[in-house]
Write a structure and sequence with these properties.
By secondary structure, the chain is an alpha+beta fold. It folds into two domains: about 1-40, no CATH class; about 40-155, no CATH class. Helix content is about 50%, strand content about 15%. The relative contact order is 0.11.
């Protein structure tokens, strides 16, 4: 794959090195990650979110168990589900749209985990808002984790 600022128009479709000819492609899969010549990460983020959903459904019976404490369930989310989503996140260049998609995924996992809560005054079931979720699990959000991993990867 050839990555350049130009859109490679008017160039041959193959790259020749010595006696070998290599086909020029717009995207390639390397070590399980999709690399594109335009450096887009939307597909990679989408793939990570699908992996996170698969991990969530594989441990769903643990997360709904009454025998495990909330602390252990949060640790399961942080050690099993989030690493599946965040594999290779150090090189992602996030736009606000991708940040929102990642936050929605994280809130959806924790909302499923904690479920609706009963209001003590009225006795009605209410859906937890994002602020309530953040207060329940006291951990940095997924965007902060990505930014801290990016800084650690850069050596800061």
């Amino acid at each position: 794959m050839v990555m350049s600022r130009e859109q490679n128009t008017g160039r041959s479709q193959n790259v020749n090195i010595e006696n070998n000819s290599f086909e020029r492609v717009e995207q390639s899969k390397y070590l399980g990650k999709t690399l594109t010549n335009k450096n887009y990460f939307q597909e990679e983020i989408k793939s990570g979110l699908m992996s996170g959903n698969a991990c969530y459904y594989s441990v769903q019976n643990l997360l709904s168990s009454r025998f495990l404490s909330d602390d252990i369930k949060i640790r399961i989310c942080r050690t099993i589900i989030l690493p599946a989503v965040l594999c290779g996140c150090e090189i992602w260049s996030l736009t606000p749209r991708e940040e929102r998609r990642l936050r929605v995924f994280e809130n959806r996992v924790f909302r499923r985990r904690f479920g609706p809560k009963r209001d003590e005054v009225t006795g009605e079931w209410i859906k937890l808002h994002n602020e309530d979720l953040n207060n329940l699990y006291f951990s940095p959000n997924i965007i902060w984790v990505i930014k801290s991993r990016r800084m650690r990867w850069a050596g800061m």
